[in-house]
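cron nightly-structures :: item 1 of 1
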Amino acid sequence: MIVLLRHLLAIAALPFVVTVLIPIWIARRYGMASPEQASMGIFAAQTVGFCLIAIGGLLFVHSVRRFAVDGEGTLAPWDPPRHLVVRGPYRYVRNPMISGVIFILFGEALILYSESHFLWAVSFLAINALSIPLFEEPQLRQRFGEPYAEYCKHVPRLVPRLRPWQPATPPG
């Protein structure tokens, strides 16, 4: 029960704010309304948006599960994984949670057909593209050492590789 509460708190504090609360604030701040005329282009954009949200949600859920099961931690910086996680979606991309959230944000922008939400998605992507290599990765290199350095050589940061990476010796 405590483990579930740790994960729910981390999710409520971080991705929920980014994917739900801030988009609601943007919609209210800029007076969002649904597109006045539903065209095939809008319908296609919204369909792609729903697909992006589904992909992002799957990536996020599987990543959180791997953090809990393999890493024995949460997505929160105050309760990070205790073990390097290189299974599941982490075999394709180093930051599948962030990639998942980015998919969700771009999906929301397409569904709402909103330039403001698109700018929020681009901003979130830019913030992470800068902060991950500057702050997160040096901490991970320090915590996990050579296994993390080896992992970084083979698995890209945000854009998934086509085939899963398999470490020569599993961390642990």
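cron nightly-structures :: done
The chain has a mean pLDDT of 87.
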